[in-house]
Every structure is written in structure tokens, then in C-alpha cells.
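Risk register update: the risk of archive-format incompatibility is retired. Evidence:
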Amino acid sequence: MTDIERTSLDAHVSICELRYQALNDRLDHMTQDMDELKVLIQGLHRDLRVQQDQTMNHWHRAQWAVIGILLSSLGWFASQWIS
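Archived output:
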């Protein structure tokens, strides 16, 4: 509180109004920043989900390939054993 605020209620009210307006402006700016951050995080989450889905698809293909190789090997060994 300044000296002029201590002696004049009108000055105090005017200065407080400026302070509150400055706080309001800062809060508005922070709200905009938070909204932008929210959009960025949502985009990142979407991209990570897509990446995760693609990785899982690759793993599933690799698993089927390994199963195919094992079954083929088993078939070959069985044909060698029977012969």
C-alpha cells in the first residue's frame, strides 16, 4: 500500500482497480496458455495411441511369423522323422 492510498480512499480504490485488472489480464493470458497446452497434450495423446496401435500390429505380425516358422519347422522335422 502506498502513502497516497493510506490518505485517500479514492486513490486506493483506483489503484486496486488497476491491480485487479492486471491480475485479471494475467489470468486470462494463463487461461489461453492452458487451453493451448490442453490442445497440444490431446494431440500428443492421439499420436501416442496411433504409435502404440502400430507397434502392437507389428508385434502381432511378428508373433504370427514366428508361429508359422515353428509350425513349418515342426512339419519338416516330422517329415524327416517319418521318412
